[in-house]
């Protein structure tokens, strides 16, 4: 635990394994499941919170790693993650629009294929 400005702050534990290909596939798969949840789903809010955490965790882990941050896999994944994160931060109470879902599914699937090929 860390104490900052006289309030308790818990350090979040990473969900990333350090294996770029496996992490890319796992994050992509989880995000594709999240964006397909219907807006009436009781677990949607929690799934969206988890998605935002995963996005931040993934980018934090791999953004500064020169072995991966110039790869097509990473840049494709980063594009998708930025789009989804931007939607969640800007339109927190709105469902993901269909055109964004289609784009995300395409980009995340491409990133999965590239990661599987490169591993």
From TrEMBL:
The keyword Signal applies. Keywords: Lipoprotein, Membrane, Palmitate, Signal, Thylakoid. It is found in: Cellular thylakoid membrane. The keyword Membrane applies. Coiled coil: none annotated. InterPro entries: PSII_Psb27 (IPR025585), PSII_Psb27_cyano_bac (IPR017488), PSII_Psb27_sf (IPR038450). Pfam families: PSII_Pbs27 (PF13326). It is a lipid-anchor. Its main location: membrane. One of its GO terms (biological process) is photosystem II assembly. One of its GO terms (cellular component) is plasma membrane-derived thylakoid membrane. Belongs to the Psb27 family. Plays a role in the repair and/or biogenesis of the calcium-manganese-oxide cluster on the lumenal face of the thylakoid membrane. Its presence in a photosystem II (PSII) preparation prevents binding of some small extrinsic subunits and thus assembly of calcium-manganese-oxide cluster. HAMAP family: PSII_Psb27. Monomer. Forms a complex with a monomeric, partially assembled PSII. This is probably the complex in which D1 is assembled and/or replaced. This is Photosystem II lipoprotein Psb27. It comes from Prochlorococcus marinus str. PAC1. The gene is psb27.
